[in-house]
Inverse folding.
């Protein structure tokens, strides 16, 4: 039996086919088409405008490198940073590639971090953070070393009041010869931290530190032949004991001993 259509549905279908409804639908379609065409034109205009702007930025002499600023360079000559950057005045600002320039500058072992920024219209700013040496180190040659274990060559006519660290051995330097191994450097840093916790100026009076013995560190003080032996697993306690012992020895007629061994619990041996 055929399905019967209600009066309301039949009326709506009849109205939908009416000329007025068809004209309204046509107007809506035309309006939507206009919106689409306008949006497409705006997008196309933006693309063309961006292309023209990009071309103008590249071709205009206003947007070429006129100044190369180097900031943060103290030990490194700023001219060396500019040389490593391979930047030349007169090149287009759009041809300046910060990531590539940074990689070039990081080739200098004294550079810990580098930031390259373009300052339109015509300036490139290179900011470097230099490594800070904490000691000299003997690993088959004398180098500066920082807290991360990075090795830096000495400058010409170098004078340094940093202690000389020895006993780490060439085998504890990485295959590239640029860095002390992590485990060896952790021992050095721990020893330095222990001394610094006792006195901020203590290490300034140390001339040499020998880590060749796995169970003790041998320390030589500046302007003195005295050798101090410390168990660096208890370094803070033993550095404190050393300072107490020095207060006693300052008042003895025998003067300073040739050797002090602090590796024993609650004991310190002095030998003249």
């Amino acid at each position: 039996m055929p399905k019967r259509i209600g009066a309301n549905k039949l009326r709506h279908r009849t109205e939908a086919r009416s000329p007025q409804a068809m004209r309204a639908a046509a107007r809506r379609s035309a309006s939507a088409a206009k919106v689409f065409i306008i949006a497409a034109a705006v997008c196309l205009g933006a693309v063309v405008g961006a292309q023209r702007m990009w071309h103008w930025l590249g071709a205009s002499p206003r947007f070429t490198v006129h100044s190369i600023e180097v900031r943060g360079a103290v030990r490194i000559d700023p001219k060396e940073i500019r040389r490593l950057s391979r930047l030349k005045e007169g090149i287009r600002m759009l041809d300046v590639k910060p990531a590539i320039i940074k990689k070039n500058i990081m080739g200098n072992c004294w550079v810990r971090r580098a930031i390259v920024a373009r300052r339109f219209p015509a300036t490139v700013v290179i900011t470097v953070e230099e490594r800070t040496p904490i000691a000299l180190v003997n690993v088959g040659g004398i180098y500066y070393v920082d807290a991360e274990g990075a090795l830096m060559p000495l400058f010409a006519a170098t004078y340094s009041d940093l202690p000389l660290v020895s006993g780490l051995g060439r085998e504890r330097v990485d295959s590239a010869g640029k860095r002390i191994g992590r485990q060896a450097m952790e021992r050095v840093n721990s020893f330095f931290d222990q001394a610094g916790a006792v006195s901020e100026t203590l290490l300034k009076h140390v001339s040499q530190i020998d880590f060749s013995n796995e169970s003790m560190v041998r320390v030589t003080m500046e302007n003195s032949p005295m050798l101090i032996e410390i168990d660096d697993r208890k370094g803070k306690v033993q550095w404190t004991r050393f300072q107490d012992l020095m207060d006693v020895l300052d008042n003895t007629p025998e003067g300073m001993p040739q050797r002090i061994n602090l590796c024993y619990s609650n004991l310190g041996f002095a030998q003249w």
In short: The chain has a mean pLDDT of 82. The helical segments are 7-16, 19-59, 78-85, 98-105, 182-198, 235-249. The longest helix spans residues 19-59.
